[in-house]
Structures are given as C-alpha cells and as structure tokens.
Amino acid sequence: LLSDFGLKDPYMPEIKAAILTICPEARIVDISHSIEKFNVRMGAFVLASVAPYSPAGTVHVAVVDPGVGTERRALLVQTKRAFYTGPDNGLLMLAAQKGGIIHTYAITNSEFMLPTVSSTFHGRDVFAPAAAHLLSGVSPKQFGPEISDFEVPRFAKPTRQTGRLVGEVLHVDDFGNIITNISEEDLSKARMKTGKTLAVDMKNEHLKVNLCRTYGDAAPKSVLMLVDSHGFLELAVNQGNASRRFRVNAGDTVHVSLT
Amino acid sequence: LLSDFGLKDPYMPEIKAAILTICPEARIVDISHSIEKFNVRMGAFVLASVAPYSPAGTVHVAVVDPGVGTERRALLVQTKRAFYTGPDNGLLMLAAQKGGIIHTYAITNSEFMLPTVSSTFHGRDVFAPAAAHLLSGVSPKQFGPEISDFEVPRFAKPTRQTGRLVGEVLHVDDFGNIITNISEEDLSKARMKTGKTLAVDMKNEHLKVNLCRTYGDAAPKSVLMLVDSHGFLELAVNQGNASRRFRVNAGDTVHVSLT
Amino acid sequence: LLSDFGLKDPYMPEIKAAILTICPEARIVDISHSIEKFNVRMGAFVLASVAPYSPAGTVHVAVVDPGVGTERRALLVQTKRAFYTGPDNGLLMLAAQKGGIIHTYAITNSEFMLPTVSSTFHGRDVFAPAAAHLLSGVSPKQFGPEISDFEVPRFAKPTRQTGRLVGEVLHVDDFGNIITNISEEDLSKARMKTGKTLAVDMKNEHLKVNLCRTYGDAAPKSVLMLVDSHGFLELAVNQGNASRRFRVNAGDTVHVSLT
C-alpha cells in the first residue's frame, strides 16, 4: 500500500479494513503514506524503488489521486511478477514498466467494488476491493476491458554534453540526501569513477566533491557523492542533511563534470 | 489499534508485543497513532469512521487516556459485529453505539491483565491483554461485571434555523479538508443539492461556494464543498489546503445557507 | 523492526519486501522508524524498552547505522529469548545484555545476504536477509564467526551524593515526558517515596514537584513526577508537554533531592 493520506486520518485503515473483509488471509505491507500530497511523481519513484524487492505475486495498491471521481480511469496492471491497482495518472507505470507490463485493464466491473462507491475515495471503494478480489483468485480480465492508452509519468533522462552530465533531482529523502536521475551507467560512460573528484553545479552552488563508496568515507558533516542503493548518483553530507545545506528540491537541475 | 502515542516511542510496539505474546495468531492493523494528544473526541471520530469497514469479529483497542491510573474504568464493549477495549471516557462509544452495543463490561479480572499493572500504561497492561485473551477465545463476561453507566462523548448535532444550517467542524484531515457534522441527510432536508451555490460563514469568512460531487469538479486551488466519503459536508480546496487558508479548527461553528 | 529511516522513503518497505521474499510466513511488527537520525543511543533505549514484552523467538532487526559500508561489522546476537541483527555500534546491546547474551556472531556468510550488497544499505542487503533466513530455520552459527569484542553503548548510571541523586535525561517521549535514568530502586534507596515532594534541578530550573502515582493525580497542566511504565523516574505535565515547558533534552543532567 502506498498513498499520500498521511497517518492521522481514517482513510488508510479503511482501505485495510476493506481488503481484510474481502480477503481475510491478505498480508498487508505499508510502503509509505507520507508521499507529498498530490505528488504523483514522488509516489511513482517510491513505488518503483520498492517493487523489485517484493515477493512474486504481490498486489500493489497505490493512491495519489487528485483526479478522483472525474473521468480518469481506475487501472489494474499485470506485470511479469506483480499486480498494481490505482488511478490512471502515471503513478503505477514507472514501477509497472520496469517490471514488464503484460496486460492493463480499466476497472469497470462494479461487482468487484464496494456496494456504494463515493466520488472522493476510490482507494477504499474501488482499488482496494479490486486488489482483495484479485488475491482471492478472481481472474484479472474479469475486472474490465483491456486498454493501452494509459498515462505514463514523465521523468527527465540525463543528457550528456561536452564533458558533463546534465540531470535533475529525482527525490530528496528523509535524511536530506539528494538523489539525482544520473545512473551508475551514465557515470561509467562519462568515466566518473569512485575516488575521482567531481564538479557539481546546482542553483548557485559550485562544489567540488569526491565520489565515494559510502557515507563513512567522508569526514562527519562533510559533503560527498556516491552511487546510492538503487544505482543513482546521490549528493549527501555524512551524518548531516545535504538538502537543508544546499536548499535543493526535486526537479532542480544538476550539472556534473570531471575536475 | 488506535492511540495518541505517536510513532517514535516504544509504547505502541509494547502493546503489539503484549498482544502477540498472548495470542500469536492475532492479525494486527493500525488505525492511527497520530491522534492529537489527549483529544478523545478526535480519537472517537476516527475510530467510528473505520469501524463499519472492519471485518466481523474485529477487536478494536483504543488508547487516548488522560485519566489512566485514576478511578476511570477499563471497558470491554461487545457490539453486533465487533469488540472494543479502552478507557471509559467516551473514546469507544461513538463507534460502539453506531455498531449497536450488546454488552459493556468493566475489566476487573486481573487474570487477563499483565502480571504487573503500571499506573500509567493500561494500554499495554490492561486493554491489549484483554483484547488478546478475547481473540484467544475467553468469553467477554469473564473480564468483569456488566455496567451501563459508561461515559458517552458529546458531539454537537447540527441545528436548522430559518433558511440555514448551523453545524460545527468535526475534524480537519491531513489534506486540510474541513469536515463538518452536517450530514447528507441534513443537506437534503434543507434542499441543498449538488450543483447549487452555498453561502458559508465561519469565523470572519463569508464565502460563496459550489456544492460539488468531487474535488476535480473545481479548478485547481479553488474552494469547493462536497459530501465526503463518510457522508458529511466538507469544505475543501482542490489540490490545496482549506484549513491553512481559512484557519479553521475542530469545534468551530459553521453556518450554511442557500444563496 | 526499528530504524531511523522515517516513513516517507522506500527504505523500510524494501527491508520488509526482502524479508517476505525469503520467509513468506514472517510476521512483521514495526517498533519505530522515527528514531532521531544517527541517534544510536535513542534507538538502543527504544529497542530495550520493547524487547522484554516481545514473544519468545522474536528476531529484532535494528538499523541506525552511520557507519554503513565502513569497517564496522554486521552482528547477529542470540539471547535467551530472542535474536538481534544490526550494526556493531552498540544499538543492539542494551536490549541484548538485558536479555542475557548467549552468542554473538559477525555476519560474513554472503550466502545469507542479497545477491548484490550495496555499500549504503545493509539493512536491506544484510540484516534483513539474515533475520529472514534465521526465521526460516538456518542455524545462527552458519552466519559467520563468533565474536566477543562488540561495541557496547555507554549510558550513564545515576550517582548518589549526600542527600541527592544525580542522573541524566534518557529520553524525551512524544508527549514531552522527560524520562531520566533514575530507577525505582534508586528512588527507594534514597527514601523518595510516592507522596513526597522532591526538589529537582535541571539547567536553570529549580522545581519542587510531588512524586505521584499517575498523571491524573496532578491538576491538569501542572507538573508532577512519577515512576514510568518502565520503572524510571519521569518528569511530566498532566495533559501538557514538560519538555516544551522546561526545554530539556536527552543527555541533560538532573539533580533530585528530598525537600
């Protein structure tokens, strides 16, 4: 389960209650309910990070849904190892495309929804019941027609210019680590290897930073870069908070070059 | 499980550990542990919202308990579909009354408490063990004497005056949506239907707002009203935060009339 | 599971996903993921508070790990009733020593790690898989060599001086209650009994406070002391926040004497 519902309200436990009523044997695992409100991109990033580690057969229910109750469709996506239910706004598709999409269905069959469907809470009334019925053995094609014109989230790819990589900030984590969209492979093609010093330009900051293997390779409170545990270039402060120091947000541009 | 314990301290996991020690097969689901400290009314509202969606036979353990260790009693309530354990301060009763109370017991039998009962943490020492023993098959009447003079929470009912409804704010959710105690039925009796424009007075605010079906019916960042997923009139900002814009809190008075 | 990962990022659900992939029957219970970043001492305190209430055979996975990827070892500790996996920085040892350590192993056998071990996220790649394999029946000694030179956390013991106890603040909980390292036994030896008035010196505060049995023994918003649910002397404000009123933090010195 992933959402932007926060942790104080009844919304997420209502989803869990709806699932367990339909499928009492369901094993429920929270991914995060602290996705920034309406931030589909952040939700897609977090879901795609966790999905590869999930057991085969996992049904992911994701709800960051500013268009609830409008014309946007409800989706059920089947990939090689997993299922996804949620709104058709790109939220599911970063993870699903990485996992290899087999079928995508629009959920329209009211037999697999709660008896009364509100116009503001499809997480409880549509997505969660679909997931629970799927876990109970209902075949994916029973939920509605197959479609192919679903929304896909737009995430910038880094570009390579003479002598430098131009990327952007993908996510700022709870430690303040600044995660970019520059992958280990991008770095390797640009000959930026662990041990080298990189020149980094972001906003008004011009930094020279060592590309390290881990946080503890830098002195406490000093700045470093490393390849993070998902394979992306990350700017961090050992035992400190890089985001607070450099005031960088998701979406900001980052230039990296060899020194 | 519902509480005002927050998420950083050992209190809630101690409750879970106590339950699983007594009843290893228990399925534990968190409702919320971010209820405002000592806010019995908010706890009662959140519990009553989730309870109708819970599977039959659920045992709810709720702890918002400023009177712990004083003369206030510990309760076990049996309704048509569920059980509730918690303090006798009204916290359980909004949900339990909606669910149809069959029996209410004062928990006094120390056989079903932890061996040492602290004076400050009955969640772990009294309510959780009672719930776990109940799940393990102990009969409700074994926990203590039946009582009928329990506390009930006082929630204002909206009143209808010439041409307008006078209600109050029941809850402000994590999105900043302002949920009132005015129900779909109240609106319908006052002929306030989706599509109409309502005049809303709260504090120093005088607003004219459309009664919509869902958030996306209003332009992004503009104000709307709708009937929320629990059947209550809600003031919201599409993809924004109404509570921050209007500085309204739970308990504030709201006047609504047709324009 | 205990960590300083917070609740918005993919890190903790990746740990859960890794566990359930290896051991689908694992029952996962969160202790806290809101430990202050890099605060090993707070993590050790919270883990040690919960551990005694956990069912026999529990495997605790704890990750507050500023030294990840450096020379610090990964540990598997076996106590009389439980197992612990986590970094060798003292985090596990307050709980483990209380529980009676039988064996401590350095986790070195890559057979029980994820296929690719990152240098920044051993929670997912080393500690969680070890816990899951342990739950699946792998013998503790298969994980690596037994060791005895592990790190232990340093927590001050209170001292007794003429007529007073000198302790320190162990933890400030989410209610703002100030928990000291002065135990019920220390109080009893110093003849400080419930009902007496104590003189308390912290920072620039000189207070006279009643030693009560529970919060409700003091008037709302007034200051009290009591023995908390783990047996430590605590300074609190009934239905208020003592930490905010007195601006005291973990580590601060507290002097207590009879009046």
Strand content of chain A: 25-35%
Number of helices of chain A: 6
Largest interface: A-B, 30 and 32 residues
Q: Give me the oligomer status.
A: homotrimer
Commentary on this structure:
The structure is a homotrimer of 259-residue chains. Chain A has 259 residues and is of the alpha+beta class. In chain A, 21% of the residues lie in helices and 28% in strands. The first copy, chain A, is built from 6 helices and 13 strands. Chain A has a 7-stranded mixed beta barrel with strand order 7-8-12-11-10-9-13. In chain A, α2 packs parallel to α3 (93-99). Chain A starts with a strand and ends with a strand. At the A-B interface, α1 of A face α2 of B.
Please provide a brief summary of the model:
The structure is a homotrimer of 259-residue chains. By secondary structure, chain A is α+β, with helices and mostly antiparallel strands.
What features would you highlight for this structure?
homotrimer, 259 residues, seven-stranded mixed β-barrel, 6 helices
